[in-house]
């Protein structure tokens, strides 16, 4: 039995996570899910968005399944996701953007983003004239994300990787990242490697997205470019993510709590479901992961009218269609049932 800690969060977080857990439960009985509170609602109730108790549970779980939380503009507010990434040292953020809807350009781009340093250290200093933000690029941070990216390419049969940076301006920090990438590339000659400046990468991703494969990049660039990639495949509702550390992992749709559509039943659950698929793979349920991604792909390909131009859909209709597809393709029933 695997133990998964579920943090649905705020806004559309619960709207996509709760039905995704229900879908996974239809596929396997071998995961036990524990639901806990964290985020804006928790902050208003208990004075903290994420408690030490939740953090302890997260440390002990086999994986964490996270929805999204709403940021509160209060100096005492500590973001749940940033705290989890930092405290559990989830240094690699993997965001695969694959076009599933018919008629779309053939986009299949994975952004691998350094997840614990860069501009996201949370260290800002106010002085009389403004604010200085502390940006950290460490040897250890670069080495582990670059090594992770090459090994991810090998495991997922990806042939091309590009290092995205801004070393023409940030000569030392991004220069260090690029040097470490080049050293690792020399050891992995079967994977074609290249390097690109982040600004021109953004332009090329819009103009020739089909030519991109895997990107490895620093925290802020990866945050922005992965949302750009989501824009190429129908919106944030299609972008799943995995936050991976040495011993722990958290899976979450890349989107936020979307207060503009919360409570209306129109959040696209595909990103949450595909994050669930990545979690099944991580936990060793390979066949179950395949049936889930098969059902998601079939639903996306079979009912394009489900998704509107802004990437929204009837959440319940999408979930029903995925459950239906799972039932029709797996007559043998779910895995993990106790043997008679
Ligand atoms: P967002 O991702 O919530 O929404 C951006 C846009 O995409 C909105 O128009 C939204 O309606 C749309 N969208 C997002 N997910 C969708 C889905 N599944 N289906 C259909 N449309 C979807 O980003 P934002 O508006 O910049 O932020 C809203 C709140 O979420 C903020 O408080 C922000 O801090 C927070 N946030 C949290 C996380 C997290 O918890 N990991 C990540 C990003 C943003
Ligand atoms: Mn983001």
Description:
Helices cover 41% and strands 20% of the residues. A 10-stranded mixed sheet has the order 2-1-3-12-11-4-5-10-8-9, sandwiched between helices. The chain has a two-stranded antiparallel ribbon with strand order 6-7. The model has no long low-confidence stretch (mean pLDDT 95). The protein has helices at 12-27, 40-46, 52-60, 80-87, 139-155, 173-187, 198-207, 219-232, 270-282, 286-302, 315-329, and strands at 2-9, 31-35, 63-68, 92-98, 108-114, 124-127, 130-133, 160-165, 192-197, 214-217, 240-244, 249-253. By secondary structure, the protein is α/β, with parallel strands linked by helices. The radius of gyration is 20 Å and the shape is globular. It has 11 helices and 12 strands. Bound molecules: nicotinamide-adenine-dinucleotide and manganese (II) ion. Manganese (II) ion binds at residues 223, 227.
């Amino acid at each position: 039995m695997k133990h998964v800690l579920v943090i649905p969060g705020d806004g559309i977080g619960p709207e996509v996570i709760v039905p995704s857990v229900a879908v996974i439960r239809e596929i396997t009985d071998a995961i036990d899910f524990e639901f806990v509170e964290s985020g804006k609602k928790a902050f208003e109730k208990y004075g903290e968005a994420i408690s030490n108790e939740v953090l302890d549970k997260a440390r002990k779980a086999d994986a964490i399944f996270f929805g999204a939380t709403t940021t509160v503009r209060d100096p005492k507010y500590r973001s749940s996701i940033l705290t989890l990434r930092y405290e559990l040292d989830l240094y690699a953020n993997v965001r695969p953007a694959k076009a599933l809807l018919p008629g779309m350009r053939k986009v299949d781009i994975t952004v691998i983003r350094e997840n614990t340093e860069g501009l996201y250290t949370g260290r800002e200093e106010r002085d009389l004239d403004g604010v200085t933000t502390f940006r950290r690029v460490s040897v250890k941070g670069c080495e582990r994300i670059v090594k992770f990216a090459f090994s991810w390419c090998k495991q997922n049969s990806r042939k091309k990787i590009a290092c995205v940076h801004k070393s023409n301006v940030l000569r030392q920090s991004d220069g260090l990242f690029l040097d470490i990438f080049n050293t690792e590339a020399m050891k992995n000659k079967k994977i074609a490697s290249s390097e690109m400046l982040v600004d021109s990468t953004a332009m090329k991703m819009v103009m020739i997205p089909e030519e991109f494969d895997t990107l490895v990049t620093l925290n802020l660039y990866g945050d922005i470019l992965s949302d750009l990639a989501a824009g190429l495949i129908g919106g944030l509702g299609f972008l799943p993510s995995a936050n991976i550390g040495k011993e722990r992992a958290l899976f979450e749709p890349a989107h936020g709590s979307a207060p503009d559509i919360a409570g209306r039943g129109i959040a696209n659950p595909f990103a949450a479901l595909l994050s669930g698929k990545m979690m099944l793979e991580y936990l060793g349920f390979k066949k179950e992961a395949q049936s889930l991604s098969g059902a998601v792909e079939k639903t996306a390909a079979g009912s394009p009218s489900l998704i509107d131009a802004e990437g929204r859909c009837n959440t319940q209709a999408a979930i029903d269609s995925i459950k239906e597809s799972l039932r029709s393709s797996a007559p043998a029933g779910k895995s993990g049932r106790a043997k008679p």
